[in-house]
Structures are given as structure tokens and as C-alpha cells.
Write a structure and sequence with these properties.
heterodimer, A: 272 residues, alpha/beta, TIM Barrel, 9 strands, 50% helix, B: 407 residues, Rossmann fold, 4-stranded antiparallel β-sheet, Trp_synthase_suA (chain A), amino-acid biosynthesis (chain A), Aldolase_TIM (chain A), Tryptophan synthase alpha chain (chain A)
Chain lengths: 272, 407
């Protein structure tokens, strides 16, 4: 069983959903990002999503854009991202890690080589924002071969017919984009989420995580109950950004403050 | 518009999934946008097959855009260069001063058929933004234009024009604040406002169906050129030259000639400070395949696949990518792509102004500069057409600055 499947199965036993925090690689620098990554499981992260910085993140809002820019400035490249993952895996063999990013840097690295290296480093799944199922064929062979899940986004605009197509190309879990919009802007209501999940559950047995617009511990708790997991990205990156100095460098507060944010989310998700 | 059904024709692309050749083009967008692109594609296919739509389009092209645009024999420039016979396709005479209105008119009619009430668009030089704001005024639609903050600064007259026309102009400060960043921001707006908003793309790039649709609306340039040259000289031109940023004016004039093998097609990219200076916008000459803004095409990018900032004196060419069909024409060798520097374009801008009394856009000045380079070594019976895609009134401040004149 993959780490992702094992983790969702274990959480189901516990009767709760997953907290999936997000961090951007090399934001604000390699060591700080690695310290955050290492601290997250202990702070209550069940799975972790790692952003691979791209110069043109056209589906992301200003908070993730700025995180990506800081990461790039600090020298984020795919080899560096995978180096961080390998370092994490020395002490943690169980927490599933998902890479999220855009296609061009991966294509530039080479799809086959990337899947091999990511798998070797300890990555479990990929979310490639701008790679719809229609264009995914070149990636699907290498991901299968190297045991990586392709986690697919489903949006409120995805109709039932298209949902079948998207799910046919999905594995690991399904990422429900709860709003039509970019990351870190608005939030969906519980009623909207419940309706969306009813539709998704009817179409797939895969776990479903909700992302985009989850900012508070209460929203995370509610989303993780309605679905099987809640992804929190922009809110944590905003917390991180608030701890940086005037030159966007990490301070002594950066790691503890962000991990405290993860802890608050996690406590809410675990509350019965 | 194009008849896409002929086989054995270079004009039959893209495939139904939006691909040109081996994997160029396509649709590379977030899932939220995929259903919208599929809906747009279906709506466009229906409109294209509807004679009423074509009739409506032609009516507005004639009575509002002011088509056909003339094909002008540039006698003095020809004499001065002493070689090939140079004609100019006068797209700068269209309403709003560039070829942009052809495409915008087609898409606004489609947006109306689709029941959309709000238009978003990206703009570089501001020509597409002005054209879009114009048709929104004409049809009473809400209009939001995203424009890089750097471009807002260097294209002030167009910014004011858009505002006069009732558009909201949003300066984009991310990245270098140019066309690439404006495109990102317009896509973000569309994702966030899918219910009522139509994204009116200004060039032959982006996710399918935009490259094909924008091309189809622009092919009127080449179709007219073909007939006008027939009238003037009784034959096809030998060389067609056009400037390329995203490539819509070039695709518009090239496409009707793709199957006429005797016609050389030359796309002129902005070399900026020089093709090998690192400050260039020549995506085909100095880029490689990649994926950005919804399509696979030639991009300026670093070894890690991060997109480079482009550089050109011309805001309209200052883009690190190019339409996928141009990338394909380059790969199969049907069109040639060359570079012209900022300085060469400035010289050509002045030459054209002084010999023909036509102030060209800095974008078009790149095409003229290449004609000036190659015409002298061609025989006098060689027929060259240069696409004057826009007029240069918007550029006089930039040109004055480079000539050391304060206005």
C-alpha cells in the first residue's frame, strides 16, 4: 500500500480527516523550509504538500506568488526541492509528501528522470496544476512505473461527464478546489462543500481533500469532516511572511510561528 | 475565416485537441478553466459554421473597423533601397490604429452570443487593450484590462484612451510588469469570475481554441493582401514580412499563403539589444519548447524551466513566448524567423516616417527594418509585402526619449 493510501486508511480508523499543510520549497531559504518540513509531522500534519516554485504561477494568488518568488530568489530548483525531500526522509519514513507545481520546470528537467528522482527522494504524489488529463499521457507512464500518484484537481466548474474523465486519470486522492478562483482568496460555505462532496463520493472511492480558501482552524476542522482532508496553504504562507524581516529573510520566530499555526489547525481537526 | 477541412494543406491545423504538429499548442490550464475552454470551443465551432455570424462579422469589419485596408506601393522607400518592390499592408488604418480590432471584433460578437457581460483582456503596448475597450464601449459591456505596470508607464496615451472608453485598467506589478505578467493576471481574473466573464485574448497564443480562433479572425489581412496583389501585379507576392510578438498580425497575413510554396514568409522577432545579448524577446530564435499560458510553444526560459523576462523597446513584442502555430511553422521550415534589434527598429521607424509619411508602430518598424535589410539585394521584380500592423502615434514618447528629445 502506498504511503498516501496507508495514511488515509489509518485516519479513517481514527475517525477523522487529514490535515495537509503546504510549504513552498526554499521559502524563505533552504534550511528554514527544511526545518518547517521536519517540524510539521510533529505539529500535526498528516500529509504535506510542497510547492515547487515557478516564475509564472497563473493559478495562484498573491500570497503563493510571493512565496514562489522568495523561493526562486533563494535558489529553488527541482534538484534542490528533491534534496530537501531526501533530507526529510532520513528521519520520517511515513508522512506522505506531495509535490505541487507547474509543468514547465518538470518538462525541462525531463518527465521520466523527474519521476525517477522524485520517487527515489521519497515523494508519493504529484499535483501539476496546468496539466489536465487530456495532456497527461506523457507523464502517466513514468508515474506508474515509479509508483507516484497523480493527484487530480476537481473544480466546481467540472461537470459530471468531465468528472468521470478526470477521475479516470486520478490516483492517491482527489483534490477538490472549493472555489472558482485563485488560491488564498475566498472561501466556500459548508453547504456548498457538502453538496460537492456528495457528488464526488458518488463518483469515486478515492479520499477527497478540500483546498483553496481554507484559512482558519474552524474551516479546516469543518472541511476535514465534510471531506477526508483539508489543505491549508495561503494562510500558513501569510503567517510565515509576517515573521520575515525587511529583506524577506527568516527570523527566530519563523519556524516556531508557522509550526504553531500548523498545531492550531491540527488541534481543530482532531477535536471531536 | 479559415476553412479547416482541407487535407494535405498546411492550413488545416490544429487538431481537434488544439495541437499543431508534434505536441505544440494544446490546453495546459488548471481544471477550473478546462470546462470553460471546452464551452468556448463548442461555441466558436457553432458560430464559425453559422452564416449569420460570418455576415455579422463582415458587416462590422467593413462599417466599423473600416476594411478592407489598402495595399500601398511604397514607391519612395522602394527607390531609396534600390531593390525589391515594397508594398505595405495598411493595417494601421483600421479603427483604433492597428490590426488588433479584427480579432477583437470577432471575439466580442462571440462573447455576446455566449451571453457574457464582462470582458477581461491582457495588453502589452495597449493596442489590444484599446481595441477591446472600444468594442466594449460599442456594445455596452464591462471591460477590465490588465496591463503590466512597466507598460502602463511607457504607453500612457493608450492607458488614457482605454479609460476614456470606459475600461478599468489594472496595473500589474508582479514580475517585470510586462505582457507576461498581465497575461497571468488576466487568467487569474477569469478563473475567479467564470460565470459572467469572457477572456478576450489578443494574440495567437494561449490554450486552444484561442490560437486558432484569433488566427481565423485575423486571416482577413492575408486574404485581402492576396486579392490586392493580384489586382496590382497580377500575381502572388514573393516575400511577406511581419513582426512577431505573440504573432497575430503575422499569422493573419501568413496563413492564406501557407499553401503557396513560392511565397517566402518571414517573421521578425524583437532581438532587443541583440539576439545574443540576453536582453531579447526572440522566443523562436533563442528559446526552446516549453509550456506557459496554456500552450506548448517556444519560450525564453532558463535551464531550470523558469520563464525569462523578455526585452524589447516595443511593448507589443515584449513577451517571452510566441503562438504555437508559429513554432510549428518554424519547426517544419515553412516560415523563417529572424531578429531585428531595438536600434534597427528605431532607424526603420524614422525611415518609414520620412519616405512614406507613415508613422509605424514600433512593432511594425521591426518588420520594416528587415525589409530594409533584405530588399536592396533582391531584384526589382521581387514583390515584398510588409505588414504595417499598427500606427506609431502611441510610440512617439518612447522614440523621442531614445532620440534624446524631450517633449
Amino acid at each position: 500500500m502506498s504511503r498516501i493510501a496507508a495514511r488515509f486508511a489509518a485516519l479513517k480508523e481514527q475517525g477523522r480527516g487529514a490535515l495537509i499543510p503546504y510549504l513552498e520549497a526554499c521559502d524563505p531559504d533552504f534550511d528554514t523550509a527544511l526545518a518547517l518540513l521536519r517540524g510539521m509531522p510533529e505539529a500535526g500534519a498528516d500529509l504535506i504538500e510542497i510547492g515547487m516554485p515557478f516564475s509564472d504561477p497563473s493559478a495562484d494568488g498573491p500570497i503563493i506568488q510571493r512565496a514562489a518568488q522568495r523561493g526562486l530568489k533563494a535558489g529553488a530548483t527541482l534538484p534542490r526541492v528533491l534534496e530537501m525531500v531526501s533530507a526529510f526522509r532520513q528521519n520520517d519514513a511515513d508522512t506522505p509528501l506531495i509535490l505541487m507545481g507547474y509543468l514547465n520546470p518538470i518538462e525541462s528537467y525531463g518527465l521520466e528522470r523527474f519521476c525517477a528522482d522524485a520517487s527515489k527522494a521519497g515523494i508519493d504524489g504529484l499535483i501539476i496544476v496546468d496539466l489536465p488529463p487530456e495532456e497527461a499521457a506523457p507523464l502517466e507512464g513514468p508515474t506508474r512505473e515509479h509508483g507516484l500518484d497523480i493527484i487530480r484537481l476537481v473544480a466546481p466548474t467540472t461537470d459530471d461527464e468531465r468528472l468521470r474523465l478526470v477521475l479516470n486519470h486520478a490516483s492517491g486522492f482527489v483534490y477538490y478546489v472549493s472555489i472558482t478562483g485563485i488560491t488564498g482568496t475566498r472561501s466556500a460555505s459548508d453547504d456548498d462543500l457538502t453538496a460537492a462532496l456528495t457528488r464526488l463520493r458518488a463518483a469515486t472511492d478515492l479520499p477527497v481533500a478540500i483546498g483553496f480558501g481554507i484559512r482558519t482552524p474552524e474551516q479546516a476542522a469543518s472541511a476535514s469532516r465534510i471531506a477526508d482532508g483539508a489543505v491549508v496553504a495561503s494562510a500558513l504562507l501569510a503567517t510565515l511572511a509576517d515573521t520575515l524581516d525587511a529583506n524577506d529573510q527568516a527570523t527566530a520566530q519563523t519556524v516556531p510561528t508557522v509550526l504553531q499555526g500548523v498545531r492550531a489547525l491540527s488541534e481543530a481537526v482532531r477535536r471531536k | 475565416m479559415t476553412d479547416g477541412t482541407r487535407s494535405n494543406s498546411l492550413r488545416s491545423g490544429p487538431s481537434p485537441s488544439g495541437h499543431f504538429g508534434d505536441g505544440l499548442g494544446g490546453r495546459f490550464v488548471a481544471e477550473t478553466l478546462m470546462p470553460l475552454l471546452l464551452e468556448l470551443n463548442a461555441a466558436y465551432e457553432t458560430a464559425k459554421a453559422d452564416p449569420e455570424f460570418r455576415k455579422e462579422f463582415e458587416f462590422y469589419l467593413r462599417d466599423y473597423v473600416g476594411r478592407p485596408s489598402p495595399l500601398w506601393f511604397a514607391r519612395r522607400l522602394t527607390e531609396q533601397l534600390g531593390g525589391a518592390k515594397i508594398y505595405m499592408k495598411r493595417e494601421e488604418l483600421n479603427h483604433t490604429g492597428s490590426h488588433k480590432l479584427n480579432n477583437v471584433m470577432g471575439q466580442i460578437l462571440l462573447a455576446r452570443r455566449m451571453g457574457r457581460s464582462r470582458i477581461v483582456a491582457e495588453t502589452g503596448a495597449g493596442q489590444h487593450g484599446v481595441a477591446t475597450a472600444t468594442v466594449c464601449a460599442l456594445f455596452g459591456m464591462k471591460c477590465v484590462i490588465y496591463m503590466g505596470a512597466t507598460d502602463v508607464e511607457r504607453q500612457k496615451p493608450n492607458v488614457f484612451r482605454m479609460k476614456l472608453l470606459g475600461a478599468e485598467v489594472v496595473p500589474v506589478t508582479s514580475g517585470a510588469g510586462t505582457l507576461k505578467d498581465a497575461m497571468n493576471e488576466a487568467m487569474r481574473d477569469w478563473v475567479a469570475n467564470v460565470a459572467d466573464t469572457y477572456f478576450l485574448v489578443g494574440t495567437v497564443a494561449g490554450p486552444h481554441p484561442y490560437p486558432a480562433m484569433v488566427r481565423d479572425f485575423q486571416t482577413v489581412i492575408g486574404e485581402e493582401t492576396k486579392m490586392q496583389m493580384q489586382d496590382a501585379e497580377g500575381r502572388l507576392p514573393d516575400v511577406v514580412i511581419a513582426a512577431i510578438g505573440g504573432g497575430s498580425n503575422a499569422m493573419g497575413i501568413f496563413h492564406p499563403f501557407l499553401d503557396d510554396a513560392s511565397v517566402r514568409l518571414i517573421g521578425v522577432e524583437a532581438a532587443g539589444h541583440g539576439l545574443d545579448s540576453g536582453k531579447t524577446a526572440a522566443s523562436i530564435s533563442r528559446g526552446r519548447r516549453g509550456v506557459l499560458h496554456g500552450n506548448r510553444t517556444y519560450l525564453l526560459q532558463d535551464e531550470n524551466g523558469q520563464i525569462d523576462e523578455a526585452h524589447s523597446i516595443s511593448a507589443g513584442l515584449d513577451y517571452p513566448g510566441v503562438g504555437p502555430e508559429h513554432s510549428w511553422l518554424h519547426e517544419i521550415g515553412r516560415a523563417e524567423y529572424v531578429g531585428v534589434t531595438d536600434d534597427e527598429a528605431l532607424d526603420a521607424f524614422q525611415t518609414c516616417t520620412q519616405t512614406e509619411g507613415i508613422i509605424p508602430a514600433l512593432e511594425s518598424a521591426h518588420a520594416i527594418a528587415h525589409a530594409i535589410k533584405v530588399a536592396p539585394s533582391m531584384s526589382p521584380d521581387t514583390l515584398v509585402v510588409v505588414n504595417i500592423s499598427g500606427r506609431g502615434d502611441k510610440d512617439i514618447f518612447t522614440v523621442a526619449e531614445h532620440l534624446g528629445v524631450s517633449l
